[in-house]
Amino acid sequence: MERAADEDGLGARERDILALERRGFSGPGAKERAIREELDLSPVRYYQLLNALLDDARALAHDPVTVNRLRRVRDARRAER
User: Fold this and answer.
1) For 73, left (φ over 0), alpha (ψ -120 to 50), or beta?
2) How far apart are CA 68 and CA 70, in angstroms?
3) pLDDT tens for the chain, residues 1 to 81
4) 61-64 contacts: CB < 8 A, separation 24 or more?
5) What CA–CA distance (Å, rounded) separates 64 from 80?
6) What pTM value is reported for the model?
7) Residue 55 per-residue DSSP state
8) How many CB atoms neighbour CB 58 within 10 A?
9) Angle of CA points 61, 52, 81, to nearest 5°
């Protein structure tokens, strides 16, 4: 059951992805397990959606700290290549 878009224009799935990114995970595989169990997504699809969210102004308005942190990580990884 999909919740309606919030006042920021993000859908429930997008808000849930950002919420999962704010959390810390204890051990190897814990994040992937949470992605599958809580969001019912494959990790590959999750990261595709997350990457698109990082370029979405609505996501930045909703959670600027998380989005900016993830953008810095993504940019650093791209610079290493």
Assistant:
1) alpha
2) 5
3) 344 555 678 999 999 999 999 998 888 899 999 999 999 999 999 999 999 999 999 999 999 999 999 999 999 998 988
4) 61/8, 62/6, 62/8, 62/10, 62/14, 62/15, 62/18, 63/18, 63/22
5) 24
6) 0.84
7) T
8) 15
9) 115
